[in-house]
Design brief:
- Helix content is 28%, strand content 24%.
- The longest helix has 25 residues.
- By secondary structure, the protein is α/β, with parallel strands linked by helices.
- It starts with a strand and ends in a 12-residue tail after the last helix.
- A hairpin with a 3-residue loop joins strand 1 and strand 2.
- Helix 6 packs across helix 7.
- It has a six-stranded mixed β-sheet, sandwiched between helices. Strands 27-26-17-18-19-28 form a six-stranded mixed β-sheet, sandwiched between helices. Strands 2-1-7-3-5 form a five-stranded mixed β-sheet.
- It is globular and about 100 Å long.
- The chain has 17 helices and 28 strands.
- The structure holds FE2/S2 (inorganic) cluster.
- The site of FE2/S2 (inorganic) cluster (FES) has 12 residues, from loops.
- The site of FE2/S2 (inorganic) cluster has 12 residues, from loops.
Length: 619
C-alpha cells in the first residue's frame, strides 16, 4: 500500500499529499484550504461538503444520511469531516468559506479620554561620566526616572551601554508604571503607538492608536481564521481538546493573523513595529484562553472554571505578537466562563461603571448572548445560550450579514427584498430573519405560537399563497425562487427556522426578566438600552420589539453601540484610569448564573410565544 496519496483540490487546483485513512477535513485544514466547518468536524453541521470527482474514501454513513440528500450522495458529495482517504483523490470544494467581514466600512471612532497611557516615553540628556562621576550606566539612567523605577527585564542590559553612548548620552526611556521597558537613542517621544484588539469569535478587530494624542489612526478587521476549527467556541474547544496539538494549532492560527494585522497597521501608518509598545486585548473567555494557548478543558465543563480571570500583563515576546519585544500585552480581565473581557469593555465604553440614577440595560446578541443591567447601586450580568440563529446558522437559508444577505422584506407579490449590497440574494441574515418574521406576524401569516397560520388566514395576501408549501412534517415559505437568486436553490423560511428564532429570543428575554426581578425594576424603569455587537448594529429595534426579542420599551431609548468591546480596549490603552476601571468594575459586577435560577425556565416558557400585540390569529 502507498504511504501517501495525491489529492487534487478544485477550484484551487492545489495538490497535496495525505497518509492513508487520514480524516479528509484535516487534509484540507493542513493545506490551508478553508471550508465551512461550523461544528469543528463532529459531523453535526453538515457544512463541510466536498464532491469526490475521482478516487475512493471511506465514509461514515450515519452523518451523511442525516445531512445529504440521495442525489447529493449519488453525485459524490461527502462531508469532509466524515470521510477517510483511501486512494488518490480529485475533489471539488462545494462551499468555500465566506468572508465574515461585513461590507460596512470600518468606523474610526475616537476615544474622548485624556491620553495618559500605561506606557510612557521620557527624553533624557544624561550627564556623561567623568573621573569625578563614575556612577554605573544603569544607575545614572534610573536617577533621572521617577524614584521607584526598577528593571525587571534582563533584555535591557546587554545593549544599554551602547545605546546610551550612540547619540552622545541623548536617550529616550520607555516605562510602564514603575518598570523600565526599553531605552532608545535620541528623542523618540513622538513615536509611541499601541493596538487595541477585540478577539471576536468570527471577526478580529485591531485599532492602532497614537498614544501621545489618544487618537485612533488606523483600524483593520480580519476573519477569525479559527472558523475552520468550528464556528462557535464550544466546537473550537472540542477541536483543541480532541485533536493532536489542537490547543497549539488554535493559538498559532490566531497569533499569525494578529501579526498580519499588526504588520499591516504599521505599514498603513508608515511606522515600525518597534514603535508599538502596548497591546490591550479583549475577547470572550474562550478566545482569550485560546490566544494564550491555555487548556479550555475545565472552561467547558460544569462548574465551568477558567484558568484565569484577572488582568494579566506579559512582555510582547512571550505572546508571539510582533511589536517591540520589550513592549507589553495587557489581557483584560474576564468576569466568568461565559462573560469575557469583551463585555467588560463594552460596559466600560457605555459607562456602566458610573454610579448614577439611570437604569441601563446592555445586550450583546450572539450565539452566547450577554446581558447586563445596572441600577444606582448594582451591576448584574448574565449569559444566555441563544443559539446561532442570529448568525444565520441552523437556519435553512441562513447566512451572515454579508453581501447577498436578505435583510428585509415587503409582503407584495413578488415580495420586495432588501439585499445587502443590492446584489442577487444568497440567503437570510439574522436581522433579516427578525424583520421577515415580524412582517409575517403583522400580516397574520404566523401565529403567536410561532406556526404558519392556516391558509384561510392569508386572505389579505392571496398572491403569496402559492409560495407557501405544506406537506408532511415540513412547512415553508419561498422567499426567493432559485431562478431569481445567486444560489442554485430556493431561499426559504422554514417552520423550523421560526422555532429557532423563537428559542433564541426567548432565551434573551428570559435572561433580561431574571435580572430585572433580581433588582426589582420594571420595563418602564429602564432609561437606556444598548445593543452591543455587530448584530446590534443591523437590527431594527421596532421589529425586535415586535417579535419580543427586546422588551416593550420606547424604541427611542435603544441605542446600537457599534463595536463597544473594541472601544473598551481602546480606552484601556489610552488611559490608565480606564484600564483600572476594568478591575474595579469586575469587582462590582454580580454574575447571575441563569442555570441556577429556577425562574429562568419559567420566564423562558412565558416568553416563548411571540407577543400578541400584533395579531389575533390562532392555530
Ligand atoms: Fe463536517 Fe460540521 S459536519 S464540519
Amino acid at each position: 500500500m502507498s504511504n501517501s496519496f495525491k489529492i487534487t483540490i478544485h477550484p484551487y487546483n492545489r495538490e497535496v499529499t495525505a497518509s492513508p485513512k487520514t480524516d479528509f477535513l484535516d487534509v484540507l485544514l493542513q493545506s490551508g484550504i478553508k471550508v465551512e466547518s461550523d461544528c469543528g468536524g463532529k459531523g453535526t453541521c453538515g457544512k463541510c461538503r466536498v464532491k469526490i470527482l475521482s478516487g475512493k474514501v471511506k465514509a461514515n454513513p450515519a452523518h451523511h444520511k442525516k445531512h445529504l440528500s440521495k442525489s447529493d450522495i449519488k453525485s459524490g458529495v461527502v462531508l469532509a469531516c466524515q470521510v477517510k482517504v483511501l486512494s488518490n483523490l480529485e475533489v471539488k470544494i462545494e462551499k468555500l468559506i465566506e468572508s465574515v467581514i461585513p461590507k460596512k466600512s470600518l468606523n474610526i471612532s475616537q476615544v474622548s479620554l485624556k491620553p495618559e497611557p500605561l506606557v510612557k516615553k521620557l527624553y533624557i540628556k544624561l550627564k556623561p561620566p567623568s573621573p569625578e562621576d563614575t556612577t554605573p550606566d544603569l544607575d545614572r539612567l534610573l536617577a533621572c526616572l521617577p524614584v521607584n523605577t526598577e528593571v525587571s527585564d534582563y533584555n535591557i542590559l546587554p545593549n544599554l551601554t551602547e545605546k546610551i553612548r550612540q547619540e552622545d548620552f541623548k536617550i529616550t526611556a520607555v516605562t510602564s508604571g514603575n518598570r523600565l521597558l526599553s531605552v532608545e537613542p535620541l528623542d523618540t517621544t513622538n513615536q509611541l503607538y499601541g493596538i487595541a484588539f477585540d478577539l471576536g469569535t468570527t471577526t478580529l478587530m485591531g485599532a492602532l492608536l497614537d498614544l501621545n494624542t489618544g487618537k485612533t489612526v488606523q483600524v483593520l478587521a480580519r476573519d477569525n481564521p479559527q472558523m475552520v476549527f468550528g464556528s462557535d467556541v464550544i466546537s473550537r474547544a472540542d477541536y483543541a481538546l480532541k485533536k493532536k496539538d489542537g490547543i497549539f494549532k488554535l493559538k498559532q492560527t490566531l497569533v499569525k493573523v494578529l501579526n498580519d494585522i499588526i504588520n499591516k497597521l504599521a505599514l498603513l501608518q508608515n511606522i515600525k513595529n518597534d514603535d508599538i509598545y502596548e497591546i490591550t486585548v479583549v475577547g470572550n473567555t474562550m478566545m482569550t484562553h485560546l490566544f494564550l494557548g491555555l487548556n479550555p478543558y475545565y472552561l467547558v465543563r460544569s462548574p465551568f472554571i477558567s484558568v484565569h480571570s484577572k488582568m494579566l500583563i506579559f512582555y510582547a515576546r512571550e505572546t508571539g505578537l510582533e511589536i517591540n519585544s520589550t513592549g507589553q500585552v495587557v489581557v483584560l480581565p474576564n468576569v466568568a466562563a461565559f462573560v469575557g473581557s469583551d463585555i467588560l469593555g463594552a460596559l466600560i465604553a457605555c459607562e456602566f461603571d458610573r454610579p448614577e440614577e439611570r437604569t441601563k440595560l446592555l445586550i450583546d446578541l450572539g450565539t452566547n448572548s450577554e446581558i447586563a443591567l445596572s441600577t444606582k447601586n448594582r451591576v448584574l450580568v448574565c449569559s444566555t445560550a441563544a443559539g446561532p440563529a442570529f448568525e444565520g446558522a441552523h437556519i435553512k437559508s441562513g447566512m451572515r450579514a454579508l453581501e447577498g444577505a436578505i435583510e428585509n422584506i415587503e409582503l407584495n407579490y413578488p415580495p420586495n427584498l432588501k439585499v445587502i449590497g443590492n446584489s442577487k440574494p444568497r440567503g437570510i441574515c439574522g436581522s433579516g430573519l427578525v424583520n421577515i418574521v415580524a412582517k409575517f406576524l403583522d400580516a397574520g401569516l404566523i401565529s403567536v405560537s410561532g406556526r404558519f397560520t392556516e391558509i384561510s388566514h392569508w386572505k389579505g395576501y392571496p398572491a403569496l399563497i402559492n409560495r407557501f408549501r405544506k406537506g408532511g412534517k415540513t412547512e415553508y415559505f419561498i422567499i426567493s425562487h432559485r431562478e431569481h437568486n445567486a444560489i442554485d436553490e430556493n431561499i426559504v423560511l422554514m417552520q423550523k427556522d421560526i422555532r429557532e428564532l423563537q428559542m433564541a429570543k426567548a432565551a434573551i428575554r428570559a435572561g433580561i426578566s431574571v435580572l430585572m426581578k433580581e433588582v426589582g425594576v420594571n420595563y418602564g424603569d429602564i432609561d437606556k438600552v444598548f445593543l452591543a455587537g455587530s448584530f446590534g448594529n443591523y437590527i431594527d429595534p421596532i421589529m425586535a420589539i415586535k417579535i419580543g426579542l427586546l422588551p416593550p420599551v420606547n424604541p427611542e431609548i435603544i441605542q446600537p453601540t457599534g463595536n463597544a468591546a473594541g472601544e473598551g480596549a481602546k480606552w484601556a490603552l489610552v488611559s490608565r484610569k480606564a484600564l483600572f476601571k476594568f478591575t474595579s468594575l469586575k469587582k462590582r459586577i454580580e454574575y447571575i448564573e441563569l442555570a441556577r435560577k429556577p425562574e429562568f425556565r419559567e420566564e423562558y416558557l412565558k416568553v416563548l410565544p411571540f407577543p400578541d400585540n400584533n395579531i389575533s390569529w390562532e392555530d
